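Sample entry copied in:
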Amino acid sequence: MKFKQVFFTVVISAVTAFGVMWGYSNFFENHNTYAGQQNGVIPSNYKYAGLFDNNTPPGSVDFTQPAAAAVPTVVHIKIKTNAKQVSNNLPKNRPKNPFSDLFGDDMLEEFFGNRRGYVPEQRGSGSGVIISADGFIVTNNHVVENADELEVTLSNKKSYKAKVVGTDPAYDLAVIKIEASGLPFLLYGNSDDVKIGQWVLALGYPLNLETTVTAGIVSAKARSLGLNKGTKTNTPVESFIQTDAAVNQGNSGGALINTSGLLIGINSAIASPTGFYSGYSYAIPVNIVKKVVDDLIKYGNVQRGYLGVVTANTNDIPEEARTRLNLNYKGDGLVITEVSENSGASDAGLKKGDIIKSVNGISLTLPSELQETVTRYKPSDKISVVFSRNGVDKTIIATLKNRAGNFDIVKVDNSVLSKLGAEFVTLDAKKAKEYGISGGVIVKKIAEGALSDQTRMRDGFIIVKVNDTDIKNMEEMNKILNGNSKTVTISGFYPGYDGLYDYPITLETLDK
């Protein structure tokens, strides 16, 4: 994806060679010298406990011990996606190819060794970080999504089959698990303590190489790049740690650690005009990772709290908007430009034009910082918000809600409709009459899921049939989709185009 002269490449690549760096086997022999990372407390019997004083004098940083502590905890993840047939996406009454009787509709595809709509088997790889002795591993969602088979190889070359515990595209994080015990695992650090200019190490399996360690410094915090847009969620979370540690394809899901050997981030992306490392890489802060991992293991999805505001940096507001908001404040902070109804913010009394200065004692200057801070909490959690209104500072306690505007635990939606990966809306009766139909369902926005994987459906498609049965609304559509069929055919039309389009979908693959 290209943004002006720079495009951001989400890093995944095949890795075919393995190896053991200096000190690996020694660490595996001693991995049982520490246990657990309860409440972030470092066990006194942890072999590398001496690292955690953070008092290394400038200019005398030694990377050997943190590297030795982290290398055995970073794994190589191999991904296999089976071959599949996808829809040709052609209308039933399309004009006939005048040469089809002689050469067939798929002449060119057959001639060049491919069939229309056929996606061959695909293989790729990424990295992951062991976070518990019993085999839980954190990686990126984009590493494991759509995978039919996962294989995890440790730095000592032992391999295991892995299963997905849970994923969340909004955070681009996933948890997988292998059946093992007594594994070395990486201890969590605190990404709030990360300072611009401090040394960091990136670990992973890049560019068909064995485990690789690179060093750099933290270049920036709370970067928002727009990489997670277009996912299943309309509210992606991005607040990256930017570093100049070399990260390449295959590093995705690997560890970013500090010089104390603590995990401070999960490597996720690079900024590059070529697709290879060109100076900048981005990691998801560990304080976000901890929350997402815990929720995925406990609930199967993330219990995300929402404050319910849209904000902008006070210094980025143009004069016209300042006048409209009656904004005279010139200091640092976030001006509220929108407050959602029935939200934690509206219930607490926050209003458009208020200046948020801090949340739970954390000063804020960027919208991504507010997002990073709030996203650590779940619905029903209370947060302290310091804000300014008409030049007067005030403090309120806001109770976060879920996206639906209540405090309920959000359960995993295993319906077929949710796995199609799109936003659906029942067609308005007036519009249905204009189209000369009794009803239907509009595909508002296609993200990641079966529709994007198995078809070439586009936004705006109007569904009128499922398996040749007329449907008038989402309830009827959902009922048919959740039947016992192994495949379904979704039929409909695009406004302004003639013809009925068929999109066959294989449901058996959706549970893998």
